[in-house]
Specification:
With 301 residues, the chain is mainly beta. It has one domain: OB fold (Dihydrolipoamide Acetyltransferase, E2P). Helix content is 14%, strand content 50%. Strands 1, 2, 3, 4, 5, 6, 7, 8, 9, 10 and 11 form an 11-stranded mixed sheet that branches. Strand 10 and strand 11 form a beta hairpin. It is globular. The two termini are 20 Å apart.
Length: 301
């Protein structure tokens, strides 16, 4: 089985919303207590020297007991968030709880919707939340991840023009050997130069910033006659911005990933998505899945 790759997210900011439920889930056909839901954290900081206000949804799922039957510390941490933490939504920014989250991780959320469209975006999951003093809060939303390099390409806008950014698809291994393919964005000239030294199949370590925010864009709908229809819409952004990285790991490094094993993992991922597509189709959708990109790597991502 593939070993889980290093995958660490650190968030420090203000609790903006708490949407947690004390409920149950089926475990061995038995209703088992758990807490699940989302805690949103507001982080004000900079990305590429631009001021940003981030709203980071942190996914929570914690059973009340461990597999050994003992009390689960993650459940107790989530319970404390429900009972003791104060959100901006429930009060105001000055009164809201400041929180520090360490050892969170990135996972991909991927599924086909009822229109047959593949929905794919990264999300943050965490088990432990620490309340901190307002004066001790140092806003942060960063990640450190080990990945295998797949395809790299310039990002194009809707008019097929380069935006100045690059996209790197990286494979990471989750608990249980599951492989996720994660898109990373590269903005600074120095970082773009750095990724050019990588080859497909290299194992590298990267660090960067979470960009979970929103932006307003203007949409123009061209009419057959008369004036065009122009309006603005808000678009949610869930991006991982690489700000630095390592040289490829040496062959004898224990963290180096095997391309053959990663290829097997990406094929299993494709099979999972195909099964999801079939389930949607069985529900009435007749749309086809997106064709494989011509820029996909030999590793399948």
């Amino acid at each position: 089985m593939l070993k889980q790759t290093y995958n660490n997210v650190r968030i420090e900011g203000i609790v903006s919303e708490i949407d947690l439920q004390d409920t149950t889930f089926k475990k061995n056909n038995v209703d088992t207590p758990c807490i699940k839901g989302t805690v949103k954290v507001r982080v004000n900081g900079k990305i590429s020297n631009k001021d940003v206000e981030l709203e980071i949804p942190v996914q929570v799922f914690a059973g009340k007991f461990t597999n050994a039957g003992s009390p689960n510390p993650a459940y107790e941490s989530a319970k404390k968030v429900m009972d003791e933490f104060v959100s901006i939504a429930a009060s105001d920014e000055a009164s809201a709880t400041r929180v520090r989250i360490t050892n969170a991780n990135i996972q991909m959320n991927e599924y086909y919707n009822q229109n047959g469209k593949l929905i794919s975006f990264p999300r943050v999951s965490a088990s432990f939340f620490t309340k901190i003093k307002k004066e001790d809060c140092k806003p942060d939303a960063s990640f450190n991840i080990t990945l295998m390099v797949g395809s790299r390409k310039e990002e194009l806008n809707k008019d097929e023009e380069p935006t100045g950014r690059w996209i790197v698809n990286g494979a990471i291994v989750q608990y249980g050997g599951k492989v996720d393919v994660v898109p990373f964005y590269v903005e600074s000239e120095r970082a773009i130069e750095g990724i050019q030294s990588w080859d497909e199949g290299d194992t590298v370590s990267v660090k960067g910033k979470l960009n979970f925010s929103s932006r307003t864009e203007t949409v123009v709908r061209h009419m057959d006659f008369g004036d065009d229809d122009e309006f603005e819409r808000t678009v949610s952004v869930s991006e991982l911005i690489i700000t630095g990285g390592s040289a490829p790991l040496n062959e004898d490094d224990e963290n180096k990933l095997d391309p053959a094993e990663i290829l097997k993992g990406t094929k299993e991922r494709t099979a999972r998505l195909e099964e999801s597509k079939k389930q949607v189709a069985a529900g009435g959708s007749t749309k086809k899945a997106p064709a494989k990109s011509k820029e996909a790597s030999d590793l399948g991502f």
